[in-house]
Protein backbone atom coordinates (compact mmCIF):
# COMPACT_ATOMS: atom_id res chain seq x y z
CA UNK A 1 0.00 0.00 0.00
CA UNK A 2 1.16 3.49 -0.88
CA UNK A 3 1.55 6.19 1.78
CA UNK A 4 0.71 9.03 -0.64
CA UNK A 5 -2.28 10.92 0.84
CA UNK A 6 -3.40 12.06 -2.62
CA UNK A 7 -3.62 8.53 -3.98
CA UNK A 8 -7.23 7.67 -4.74
CA UNK A 9 -6.72 4.15 -5.97
CA UNK A 10 -7.96 5.00 -9.50
CA UNK A 11 -6.07 3.50 -12.47
CA UNK A 12 -4.15 5.80 -14.91
CA UNK A 13 -5.27 6.46 -18.50
CA UNK A 14 -5.48 3.36 -20.71
CA UNK A 15 -3.34 2.74 -23.81
CA UNK A 16 -6.33 3.47 -26.07
CA UNK A 17 -6.84 6.84 -24.41
CA UNK A 18 -3.19 7.76 -24.78
CA UNK A 19 -3.25 6.83 -28.52
CA UNK A 20 -6.46 8.82 -29.01
CA UNK A 21 -4.97 11.87 -27.28
CA UNK A 22 -1.81 11.65 -29.39
CA UNK A 23 -3.85 11.35 -32.60
CA UNK A 24 -6.01 14.31 -31.68
CA UNK A 25 -2.94 16.41 -30.86
CA UNK A 26 -1.36 15.48 -34.20
CA UNK A 27 -4.59 16.28 -36.04
CA UNK A 28 -4.80 19.69 -34.36
CA UNK A 29 -1.19 20.44 -35.33
CA UNK A 30 -1.69 19.34 -38.98
CA UNK A 31 -2.21 22.34 -41.32
CA UNK A 32 -5.43 22.60 -43.24
CA UNK A 33 -5.68 22.01 -46.99
CA UNK A 34 -5.74 25.77 -47.64
CA UNK A 35 -2.62 26.24 -45.53
CA UNK A 36 -0.85 23.41 -47.38
CA UNK A 37 -1.79 24.93 -50.75
CA UNK A 38 -0.59 28.33 -49.59
CA UNK A 39 2.73 26.90 -48.41
CA UNK A 40 3.15 25.07 -51.71
CA UNK A 41 2.47 28.23 -53.73
CA UNK A 42 5.01 30.16 -51.65
CA UNK A 43 7.66 27.52 -52.29
CA UNK A 44 6.95 26.96 -56.02
CA UNK A 45 5.66 30.37 -57.11
CA UNK A 46 8.24 30.62 -59.90
CA UNK A 47 6.80 27.55 -61.63
CA UNK A 48 3.27 28.94 -61.50
CA UNK A 49 4.42 32.26 -62.92
CA UNK A 50 5.89 30.33 -65.85
CA UNK A 51 2.52 28.58 -66.30
CA UNK A 52 0.57 31.83 -66.64
CA UNK A 53 1.15 32.27 -70.43
CA UNK A 54 -0.01 28.70 -71.11
CA UNK A 55 -3.07 29.11 -68.89
CA UNK A 56 -3.97 32.36 -70.64
CA UNK A 57 -3.56 30.71 -74.05
CA UNK A 58 -5.84 27.83 -73.03
CA UNK A 59 -8.43 30.19 -71.59
CA UNK A 60 -8.50 32.54 -74.60
CA UNK A 61 -8.22 30.11 -77.48
CA UNK A 62 -9.77 26.90 -76.11
CA UNK A 63 -12.19 27.68 -73.30
CA UNK A 64 -13.56 31.05 -74.35
CA UNK A 65 -14.71 29.75 -77.79
CA UNK A 66 -16.84 27.15 -76.00
CA UNK A 67 -19.28 29.96 -75.37
CA UNK A 68 -20.17 29.79 -79.05
CA UNK A 69 -21.14 26.11 -78.89
CA UNK A 70 -24.63 27.16 -77.93
CA UNK A 71 -25.36 28.13 -81.54
CA UNK A 72 -25.58 24.38 -82.22
CA UNK A 73 -28.89 24.57 -80.36
CA UNK A 74 -30.06 27.87 -81.88
CA UNK A 75 -31.36 29.18 -85.17
CA UNK A 76 -28.27 31.33 -85.43
CA UNK A 77 -28.23 34.56 -87.37
CA UNK A 78 -25.15 36.72 -87.83
CA UNK A 79 -27.31 39.82 -87.55
CA UNK A 80 -29.09 38.76 -84.35
CA UNK A 81 -25.94 37.42 -82.72
CA UNK A 82 -25.55 34.54 -80.31
CA UNK A 83 -27.75 36.00 -77.58
CA UNK A 84 -30.49 37.17 -79.93
CA UNK A 85 -30.86 33.91 -81.86
CA UNK A 86 -33.79 31.73 -80.71
CA UNK A 87 -33.32 28.29 -79.18
CA UNK A 88 -34.46 25.36 -81.32
CA UNK A 89 -33.19 22.41 -79.27
CA UNK A 90 -31.78 19.42 -81.14
CA UNK A 91 -33.21 20.35 -84.52
CA UNK A 92 -29.76 20.75 -86.11
CA UNK A 93 -28.71 17.31 -84.91
CA UNK A 94 -31.85 15.80 -86.42
CA UNK A 95 -31.00 17.57 -89.67
CA UNK A 96 -27.47 16.19 -89.56
CA UNK A 97 -28.51 12.59 -89.14
CA UNK A 98 -31.02 13.00 -91.94
CA UNK A 99 -28.35 14.43 -94.23
CA UNK A 100 -26.81 11.86 -96.60
CA UNK A 101 -23.69 13.96 -97.06
CA UNK A 102 -23.02 14.06 -93.31
CA UNK A 103 -23.57 10.31 -92.93
CA UNK A 104 -21.22 9.70 -95.85
CA UNK A 105 -18.62 12.01 -94.28
CA UNK A 106 -18.98 10.25 -90.91
CA UNK A 107 -18.53 6.86 -92.54
CA UNK A 108 -15.45 8.02 -94.46
CA UNK A 109 -13.97 9.54 -91.29
CA UNK A 110 -14.35 6.26 -89.40
CA UNK A 111 -12.96 4.16 -92.27
CA UNK A 112 -9.94 6.42 -92.90
CA UNK A 113 -9.21 6.67 -89.15
CA UNK A 114 -9.47 2.89 -88.84
CA UNK A 115 -7.01 2.39 -91.69
CA UNK A 116 -4.69 4.93 -90.11
CA UNK A 117 -4.92 3.13 -86.76
CA UNK A 118 -4.29 -0.33 -88.22
CA UNK A 119 -1.50 0.60 -90.63
CA UNK A 120 -0.20 3.91 -89.28
CA UNK A 121 -0.02 3.33 -85.51
CA UNK A 122 2.42 0.36 -85.58
CA UNK A 123 4.84 2.04 -88.00
CA UNK A 124 6.54 4.40 -85.47
CA UNK A 125 6.96 1.45 -83.11
CA UNK A 126 8.56 -0.66 -85.84
CA UNK A 127 10.84 2.23 -86.82
CA UNK A 128 11.93 2.75 -83.21
CA UNK A 129 12.67 -0.96 -82.81
CA UNK A 130 14.68 -1.00 -86.04
CA UNK A 131 16.63 2.13 -85.10
CA UNK A 132 17.40 0.54 -81.74
CA UNK A 133 18.94 -2.47 -83.47
CA UNK A 134 21.25 -0.40 -85.71
CA UNK A 135 24.78 -0.50 -84.33
CA UNK A 136 26.52 1.81 -86.81
CA UNK A 137 25.83 5.30 -85.47
CA UNK A 138 26.54 7.17 -88.72
CA UNK A 139 23.98 5.16 -90.65
CA UNK A 140 21.52 5.38 -87.76
CA UNK A 141 21.66 9.18 -87.56
CA UNK A 142 21.38 9.53 -91.33
CA UNK A 143 18.35 7.24 -91.50
CA UNK A 144 16.67 9.05 -88.61
CA UNK A 145 17.20 12.43 -90.27
CA UNK A 146 15.66 11.17 -93.52
CA UNK A 147 12.52 9.77 -91.86
CA UNK A 148 12.09 12.79 -89.54
CA UNK A 149 12.33 15.33 -92.35
CA UNK A 150 8.80 15.00 -93.88
CA UNK A 151 7.22 16.07 -90.57
CA UNK A 152 8.84 19.49 -90.87
CA UNK A 153 7.73 20.00 -94.47
CA UNK A 154 4.54 22.02 -95.06
CA UNK A 155 1.40 20.04 -95.85
CA UNK A 156 1.04 22.10 -99.02
CA UNK A 157 4.45 20.92 -100.23
CA UNK A 158 3.70 17.32 -99.23
CA UNK A 159 0.42 17.48 -101.18
CA UNK A 160 2.27 18.93 -104.17
CA UNK A 161 4.77 16.06 -104.07
CA UNK A 162 1.93 13.52 -103.91
CA UNK A 163 0.02 15.14 -106.79
CA UNK A 164 3.19 15.22 -108.90
CA UNK A 165 4.15 11.64 -108.05
CA UNK A 166 0.73 10.30 -109.05
CA UNK A 167 0.31 12.56 -112.10
CA UNK A 168 -0.88 10.55 -115.17
CA UNK A 169 1.50 12.41 -117.49
CA UNK A 170 4.80 12.89 -115.65
CA UNK A 171 4.37 11.15 -112.28
CA UNK A 172 6.97 8.64 -111.19
CA UNK A 173 4.26 6.08 -110.32
CA UNK A 174 2.67 6.13 -113.77
CA UNK A 175 6.11 6.18 -115.40
CA UNK A 176 6.98 2.94 -113.62
CA UNK A 177 3.60 1.47 -114.58
CA UNK A 178 4.36 2.41 -118.19
CA UNK A 179 7.56 0.36 -118.01
CA UNK A 180 5.33 -2.62 -117.18
CA UNK A 181 3.01 -1.90 -120.10
CA UNK A 182 0.15 -0.55 -117.91
CA UNK A 183 -1.87 2.43 -119.09
CA UNK A 184 -1.56 5.63 -116.99
CA UNK A 185 -4.04 5.97 -114.15
CA UNK A 186 -5.18 9.31 -112.73
CA UNK A 187 -5.14 8.05 -109.17
CA UNK A 188 -6.38 11.22 -107.47
CA UNK A 189 -9.64 11.17 -109.44
CA UNK A 190 -10.39 7.55 -108.55
CA UNK A 191 -12.43 7.26 -105.32
CA UNK A 192 -11.09 3.77 -104.63
CA UNK A 193 -7.48 5.05 -104.61
CA UNK A 194 -7.93 8.09 -102.38
CA UNK A 195 -7.88 6.29 -99.01
CA UNK A 196 -4.69 4.25 -99.65
CA UNK A 197 -2.90 7.37 -100.96
CA UNK A 198 -4.04 9.51 -98.03
CA UNK A 199 -3.14 6.92 -95.36
CA UNK A 200 0.21 6.20 -97.01
CA UNK A 201 1.01 9.91 -97.20
CA UNK A 202 0.21 10.32 -93.51
CA UNK A 203 2.48 7.40 -92.57
CA UNK A 204 5.33 8.77 -94.69
CA UNK A 205 4.97 12.26 -93.19
CA UNK A 206 4.52 11.43 -89.49
CA UNK A 207 5.81 7.92 -88.70
CA UNK A 208 9.44 8.99 -88.36
CA UNK A 209 8.76 11.90 -86.03
CA UNK A 210 6.34 9.87 -83.91
CA UNK A 211 9.01 7.20 -83.41
CA UNK A 212 10.93 9.65 -81.19
CA UNK A 213 8.53 8.93 -78.32
CA UNK A 214 9.25 5.20 -78.49
CA UNK A 215 13.00 5.76 -78.91
CA UNK A 216 12.93 7.82 -75.72
CA UNK A 217 11.07 5.00 -73.94
CA UNK A 218 13.63 2.47 -75.20
CA UNK A 219 16.48 4.70 -73.99
CA UNK A 220 15.01 4.48 -70.48
CA UNK A 221 15.34 0.69 -70.31
CA UNK A 222 18.03 -0.44 -67.89
CA UNK A 223 21.10 -1.80 -69.77
CA UNK A 224 21.51 -4.46 -67.06
CA UNK A 225 18.47 -6.27 -68.49
CA UNK A 226 20.19 -6.66 -71.84
CA UNK A 227 23.48 -7.63 -70.19
CA UNK A 228 21.74 -10.37 -68.22
CA UNK A 229 20.02 -11.59 -71.38
CA UNK A 230 23.37 -11.77 -73.22
CA UNK A 231 24.83 -13.81 -70.36
CA UNK A 232 21.87 -16.18 -70.67
CA UNK A 233 22.55 -16.54 -74.40
CA UNK A 234 19.56 -14.59 -75.73
CA UNK A 235 19.61 -13.43 -79.35
CA UNK A 236 18.84 -9.86 -80.52
CA UNK A 237 15.39 -11.03 -81.64
CA UNK A 238 14.65 -12.60 -78.25
CA UNK A 239 15.81 -9.48 -76.40
CA UNK A 240 13.52 -7.33 -78.53
CA UNK A 241 10.49 -9.52 -77.79
CA UNK A 242 11.24 -10.29 -74.15
CA UNK A 243 12.78 -7.00 -72.95
CA UNK A 244 12.29 -4.06 -75.31
CA UNK A 245 8.63 -4.49 -76.23
CA UNK A 246 7.35 -5.29 -72.69
CA UNK A 247 9.33 -2.33 -71.33
CA UNK A 248 7.78 0.19 -73.74
CA UNK A 249 4.29 -1.33 -73.53
CA UNK A 250 2.96 1.38 -71.12
CA UNK A 251 4.10 4.07 -73.59
CA UNK A 252 2.42 2.21 -76.46
CA UNK A 253 -0.84 2.00 -74.50
CA UNK A 254 -0.81 5.71 -73.63
CA UNK A 255 -0.16 6.67 -77.26
CA UNK A 256 -2.92 4.29 -78.39
CA UNK A 257 -5.43 5.91 -76.05
CA UNK A 258 -4.52 9.35 -77.40
CA UNK A 259 -4.75 8.06 -80.98
CA UNK A 260 -8.21 6.59 -80.35
CA UNK A 261 -9.36 9.90 -78.88
CA UNK A 262 -8.29 11.62 -82.12
CA UNK A 263 -9.89 9.09 -84.46
CA UNK A 264 -12.42 11.58 -85.82
CA UNK A 265 -9.76 14.27 -86.26
CA UNK A 266 -8.61 13.27 -89.74
CA UNK A 267 -5.99 15.62 -91.23
CA UNK A 268 -8.16 18.44 -92.53
CA UNK A 269 -5.45 20.27 -94.46
CA UNK A 270 -4.28 17.23 -96.42
CA UNK A 271 -7.83 16.22 -97.33
CA UNK A 272 -8.62 19.72 -98.59
CA UNK A 273 -5.44 19.75 -100.67
CA UNK A 274 -5.92 16.30 -102.20
CA UNK A 275 -9.64 15.72 -102.60
CA UNK A 276 -11.99 16.95 -105.33
CA UNK A 277 -15.67 16.45 -106.18
CA UNK A 278 -14.84 13.24 -108.08
CA UNK A 279 -13.51 11.66 -104.87
CA UNK A 280 -16.08 13.00 -102.38
CA UNK A 281 -17.53 9.50 -102.23
CA UNK A 282 -14.53 8.21 -100.24
CA UNK A 283 -12.63 11.41 -99.35
CA UNK A 284 -15.22 13.67 -97.73
CA UNK A 285 -14.87 13.60 -93.92
CA UNK A 286 -16.61 15.36 -91.03
CA UNK A 287 -14.11 18.22 -90.92
CA UNK A 288 -14.44 18.96 -94.64
CA UNK A 289 -18.23 18.73 -94.29
CA UNK A 290 -18.06 21.33 -91.49
CA UNK A 291 -15.85 23.52 -93.66
CA UNK A 292 -18.22 23.43 -96.63
CA UNK A 293 -21.36 23.93 -94.57
CA UNK A 294 -20.00 26.51 -92.14
CA UNK A 295 -17.43 28.56 -94.06
CA UNK A 296 -18.59 28.16 -97.64
CA UNK A 297 -22.30 27.67 -97.05
CA UNK A 298 -22.76 30.10 -94.15
CA UNK A 299 -24.67 27.50 -92.04
CA UNK A 300 -22.70 28.19 -88.90
CA UNK A 301 -25.23 26.62 -86.55
CA UNK A 302 -25.34 23.33 -88.48
CA UNK A 303 -21.55 23.25 -88.69
CA UNK A 304 -21.33 23.91 -84.93
CA UNK A 305 -23.67 20.97 -84.30
CA UNK A 306 -21.47 18.71 -86.44
CA UNK A 307 -18.36 19.91 -84.62
CA UNK A 308 -19.96 19.37 -81.20
CA UNK A 309 -20.98 15.85 -82.20
CA UNK A 310 -17.41 15.22 -83.31
CA UNK A 311 -16.04 16.42 -79.95
CA UNK A 312 -18.52 14.37 -77.90
CA UNK A 313 -17.69 11.18 -79.81
CA UNK A 314 -13.95 11.83 -79.34
CA UNK A 315 -14.51 12.36 -75.59
CA UNK A 316 -16.46 9.10 -75.29
CA UNK A 317 -13.79 7.20 -77.24
CA UNK A 318 -10.90 8.40 -75.12
CA UNK A 319 -12.80 7.79 -71.87
CA UNK A 320 -13.74 4.27 -72.97
CA UNK A 321 -10.22 3.43 -74.15
CA UNK A 322 -8.74 4.77 -70.91
CA UNK A 323 -11.18 2.78 -68.76
CA UNK A 324 -10.49 -0.46 -70.64
CA UNK A 325 -6.74 0.08 -70.46
CA UNK A 326 -6.88 0.88 -66.75
CA UNK A 327 -8.91 -2.23 -66.03
CA UNK A 328 -6.85 -4.75 -67.99
CA UNK A 329 -3.32 -3.33 -68.09
CA UNK A 330 -3.13 -1.00 -65.06
CA UNK A 331 -1.89 1.74 -67.46
CA UNK A 332 -3.97 4.84 -68.14
CA UNK A 333 -3.86 8.57 -68.79
CA UNK A 334 -5.35 9.33 -65.37
TrEMBL record:
Q: Does the keyword Nucleotidyltransferase apply?
A: no
Main localisation: membrane
| Key words of the record | Cell membrane, Membrane, Transmembrane, Transmembrane helix, Transport
Q: Which GO terms describe its biological process?
A: transmembrane transport
Q: Where in the cell is it found?
A: Cell membrane
Instruction: Give the superkingdom in one word.
Output: Bacteria
Q: InterPro entries of this UniProt entry?
A: MetI-like, MetI-like_sf, UgpAE/MalFG_permease
Q: Tell me how this protein sits in the membrane.
A: Multi-pass membrane protein
Task: Indicate the transmembrane segments per the record.
Answer: 45-63, 112-135, 147-167, 212-231, 243-261, 302-324
Q: Name one GO cellular component term.
A: plasma membrane
The record's annotation in CDD domains points to: TM_PBP2
State the similarity comment: Belongs to the binding-protein-dependent transport system permease family.
Put simply, this protein is called: Carbohydrate ABC transporter membrane protein 1, CUT1 family
Query: What is the species listed in this Swiss-Prot or TrEMBL entry?
Result: Limimaricola pyoseonensis
Amino acid sequence: MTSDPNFTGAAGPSTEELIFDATEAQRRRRPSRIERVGDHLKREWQLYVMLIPTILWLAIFLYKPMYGLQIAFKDYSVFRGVEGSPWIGFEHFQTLFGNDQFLRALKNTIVISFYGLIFGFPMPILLALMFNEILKQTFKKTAQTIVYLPHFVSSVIIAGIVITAFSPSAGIVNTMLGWLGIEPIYFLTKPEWFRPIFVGTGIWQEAGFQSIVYLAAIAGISPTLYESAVVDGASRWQMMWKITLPSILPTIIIMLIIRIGNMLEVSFEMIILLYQPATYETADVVNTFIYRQGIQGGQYDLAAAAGLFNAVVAFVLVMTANAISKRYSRTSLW
